[in-house]
Amino acid sequence: MRPSVARQSEMPGPKVYSLWWGDRTIPKQKGVVEYTISAYRAKAAPHMLRNYLFNGYRRLSGELVFWLIPFGMGYGIYTWAKKTDAYHHSKAAHVAAGVEHD
Amino acid sequence: MRLLKTHVLLRFLNSYVVDSPQPANISYLWNFGSLLALCLIIQILTGAFLAMHYSPNVDFAFNSVEHIMRDVNNGWIIRYTHANVASFFFIFVYMHVGRGLYYGSYKSPRVLVWSIGVIILILMMAIAFLGYVLPYGQMSLWGATVITNLLSAIPIFGVDIVELIWGGFSVSNATLNRFFSLHYLLPFLLAALALAHLIALHVHGSNNPNGVTSNGDRYAMHPYFIFKDLVTIFAFLLVLSVIVFFYPNLLGHSDNYIPADPMVTPASIVPEWYLLPFYAILRSIPNKLLGVLAMFGSLLILLILPLTDLSRIRGNQFRPAMKLAFWFFVVDFIILLWIGSQHPESPYLEIGQIATTFYFAWFLVLVPIIGIAENTLLDVATADKTNK
Predict the structure, then answer these.
(1) Does the distance separating the beta carbons of B324 and A14 come in below 8 Å?
(2) Residue B67 annotated as binding?
(3) Residue B37: which H helix or E strand, with range?
(4) B67 is catalytic
(5) Whole-prediction pTM value?
(6) What is the DSSP letter of B343?
């Protein structure tokens, strides 16, 4: 098969995005640009350390403020509830509530 | 190459997992789809092998599971894998939904994808619940009793429906049999819905972190994203192996190793961890019928997001207020999960009620208000100043 046949078919690629289970009448999306390089040139995980560690840290640290406030409050509620619950089940609480304690 | 593009069936494979152009900028948060597909395949395969040795009878069910664990060659691996992948299934599906919430994947034109996804989520929960009943331990029996009894809250014919589901006057042999039958059948419906999820997705393609069209910058699914999906698939298999081989009962409840006994109620009846947030919502509302409605409503309310998210911007990448609101929602969900595992007493009861209120308010109040505020600020900032 000549490469141009595949390129001009309704198969997904730069000219076509969708394929509705054999239906050729679906409107084609225009302006899909697809980049690719030879498989012999592609590296599986280029700059893995730099990307995953340093750039990952840079990206995640920017979000830190959005995590700290909610999770901080959540942890505060958790510890307060644990403390309150422990008190409710303590002798001191039973005495304070006027409940008989064996 | 020619066959892959022209064969009547292979061309679908080609158009979905080989040539399909994907946004170049999708992050690892877009990997949960493939992980979920893998989970479904593992569950169906291990489930089929478990069914070869399992006996859906109240007298034999518990012992047949022990038989699988002790006598069947590698039966323990199959059973522990099935039990733990169920948990990972939910971890991934919550992350998948969270990704959708964060990046506005529910917004037009992907409303159909989102809606099918919500149905899949509800069906998954039903399947997981049915599966948990099958070993017929204490928590199986009493969990089934509590959850099926919820339907008795339906006015007039509620009790009739519950007895119809039971096939008797309590959770019994007939119940176990039909639960087994449905637990085997429904995953195939789930697989069909997952396929529909994919078909709907491929009409407009994946969303991306920026929330604007990615038509101008795409890579082919293979090899770029196939490789990237494999990274998380192998990471998952590694973690799964550690759990299955070293901590297989970490996420289970010890009471389910006691054979079901209708005469002994466990000290506390708790569902599997992934159902706890919704269990907490159920228990937060004193009225039984309203509690049941709130529980189902807490899942169905996901469907309303395409309507209540009024922001003109898709996704939270460039919306700091919504980012904060999103993480508050995540924390609220975790709090509900924790509350669901506690006894319904003060202060857990009150925290559960506030968290339930916040859960619904997030969808119905917070999301639209933040959207309107942002749109207004945008209008003010871009208004024509020359009219002054």
Answers:
(1) no
(2) no
(3) helix B32-51
(4) no
(5) 0.92
(6) -
